[in-house]
Amino acid sequence: MNRCDEQNIELALSPDAVDEMNARFYGAFTFPWRPLKFDRALDPYFEADMLNQSIGCWDGGVVPRCPRVWVAGCGANQALITALKFLRGFVVGSDLSAESLAFCGDTARKLGVSNLELRRETINRVSYREEFDYVICTGVIHHNAESQVALARLAEALKPTGVLELMVYNRYHRIATSATQKALRLLLGRGGSGGAGAAELASQLSFARKLVCAFRAGNSVSRLLEECEALPDSAVADTLLQPVEFSYTVESLAEMAEGCGLELMLPCVNVFDRAWKTISWDVEFGDEELQRVYDALEDRERWQVTNLLMAERTPMLWFYLQRKDSGRGRKTERQVCDEFLSTKFVRTGARQLSYLLADDGEYRVAPTPHAHPLAAAESSVRRIAELCDGARAVGEILRELEVEATFRVVNHARLRLTTSAFPYLKAATADGAGGRPGPATEPSRRPVRAGPTRGMRRSLGRVESPADGPPNKT
Prior knowledge:
It is built from 18 helices and 16 strands. By secondary structure, the chain is an alpha/beta fold. The chain has two domains: 15-172 and 246-334, Vaccinia Virus protein VP39 (Rossmann fold), CATH 3.40.50.150; 345-466, no CATH class. The longest helix has 17 residues, at 198-214.
């Protein structure tokens, strides 16, 4: 392997050496920082139901309502956030950093969370075998010496029917970041954060802050540094001083997954893409022949074309995966959209309790629950949500609204109404629990006249494209 290419991998000499570096690094810089609040749904099964919908399972039959979950590389907060989502399940959080685990454990005790176990261990050496229904690993394996080895451990930990939520860095999002990390290593004497202790890491952070304030070249690196000015120390260190950082394209991620007996299921809508408005992997070309050829591609090829053409403006490489021997066929994104059209939904009416960070550093429960989500659905899909009453399938509602059910329009609505990130609708059943596809109602391509809906047609006529996102992601 070329240890000095465009990625920051020259220190990726062995799994054990990188584990030691990361343990020291995140011991010195607890990451992520303390959040202003933690949330939990009043319905203890709500998150499991929405997770199933996010992977295109409308009957709640893949991830159980009381799952066994592993958060691999949990940092200071993620295992606790997950335990609050799945209060009737059991969550194991693993991390190399004793400081991060202590931070998380202390907060969990203060919140009275009892379904969480924290373990100091490396992903590279765990011996879990078909133990977890749901594995979460976001922003972790790309900091390992051999990412595929770490991913293989995650695959082995999954039950045959389990689901993995994985995020690795998108190559086109990290060009400026990797370049800055390598430049700082040279400025700091090549070793950088590789063999540094806490005092030296603090000194390196101070030096990195000088670069943040002093370098103004008007290019992607200086824009990255400008964004770092307002970030806390742990975020600046994670961005600029991380000792090892691989990054991927859709193609290289899919190939690595296949080498571990896994396959990509669907993209995972996440908080970062929501903020950057880069949720969709669908490109709208404005040319019929181009669009026809692009739309005919298999998911993986279509996503890769998007990744290549849109580059830094594509969504994050954040996907749900399953074992290739799961026993259930992989649903294409188009199949999931077809099922969405034939499913009847009701509005969730979900509510949450929040634990708010007080001035004294303690978390206190807010006096009253609040709606979840707090904001109304996006204007482009709000009318669909309003008309979902459990009696009509989405396809029928679109015909009533005179909306042509193209793949991009349907996928736009599915992502923004029925996923964990946008939990507005829940598939309806006779008893109101879980979700189940309604009778097949393949929508007609001919719109049915019904009421004044031109605004609705206009808002869904041009769905969000990856091109709508910002130029830099860090």
